[in-house]
Amino acid sequence: RKEVEQDPGPFNVPEGATVAFNCTYSNSASQSFFWYRQDCRKEPKLLMSVYSSGNEDGRFTAQLNRASQYISLLIRDSKLSDSATYLCVVNLSSNTGKLIFGQGTTLQVKP
Amino acid sequence: DGGITQSPKYLFRKEGQNVTLSCEQNLNHDAMYWYRQDPGQGLRLIYYSQIVNDFQKGDIAEGYSVSREKKESFPLTVTSAQKNPTAFYLCASQDPGTGAYGYTFGSGTRLTVV
């Protein structure tokens, strides 16, 4: 089983749609969780950290379910500019900063 | 402005050559990382360093070498022993090196074997 698993998609949605991405992780000792965005042929950029209580940043909402080892990202009112690959990222231990990346979920927002 | 710089942006390597990818950061971050990304795949960890003069192998270290003589610099050498080096190479830094705050990435180097 992969340490971090995501549905690769692609997700093709119309502008204005709400879309949700899911991610599962294998290690219950995981400490920190993030969503990164990666545009085609570019480096990943931090979108948001994921906190146990859930957190929101504008149209983006991230949630964490430690019991189910599950992370989600909800994007409301999708824009064309949201088209990208979204990477689920997990840190397994507070003793090391190594992050484990999922393979990413591709989103294509269409007019 | 603080940031992390990778060079060159594109690199072409002949069979049997060693090449070195540069990674420099002025963020005063302790921890630095090298990842490889193949088309349609996630990032795989090659090497990482949490402090100057110390580094650790990641999941796919074979055929690669690194050094960390200065806090700002973490160059990666792709040796001739790496049989399939064509990929997108990403360098990242992190502070503190505990994973609580995520990475800052450089813009990457695309290496192609010709």
The rounded distance between the terminal residues' Cα atoms of chain A is: 37 Å
Based on Cα principal axes, name the global outline of chain B: globular
The biggest sheet of chain B amounts to:
7 strands, mixed
SSE order of chain B: EEEEEEEEEEE
Please report the total strand number of chain A as a whole number: 11
Secondary-structure content class of chain B: mainly beta
Largest interface, counted with CB-CB under 8 A? A-B, 28 and 27 residues
Q: Summarize the amount of helix of chain A as a percent range.
A: under 10%
What are the segments of chain A in which pLDDT stays under 50 over at least 5 consecutive residues?
none
State the assembly state of the protein chains: heterodimer
**Number of DSSP helices of chain A?**
0
- Radius of gyration of chain A, rounded? 14 Å
With helices defined by DSSP (H or I, 4 residues minimum), what is the helix count of chain B?
A: 0
Averaged pLDDT of chain A: 93
What proportion of the residues of chain B is helical, as a percent range? under 10%
Q: Bin the strand percentage of chain A.
A: over 45%
* SSE arrangement of chain A, N to C: EEEEEEEEEEE
Q: What percentage of amino acids of chain B are in beta strands?
A: over 45%
Summarize the structure in words.
The complex is a heterodimer of chains A (111) and B (114). Chain A is mostly beta strands and 111 residues long. Chain A has no helices and eleven strands. In chain A, the strands form two sheets. In chain A, strands 2, 4, 5, 9, 10 and 11 form a six-stranded mixed beta sheet that branches. Chain A starts with a strand and ends with a strand. Chain B has 114 residues and is mainly β. Chain B has no helices and eleven strands. Chain B has strands at residues 4-7, 10-13, 19-25, 31-37, 43-51, 54-57, 64-66, 76-78, 87-94, 104-105, 109-113. In chain B, strand 4 and strand 5 (43-51) form a beta hairpin. The model of chain B has no long low-confidence stretch (mean pLDDT 92). Classes of the chains: A mainly beta (111), B mainly beta (114).
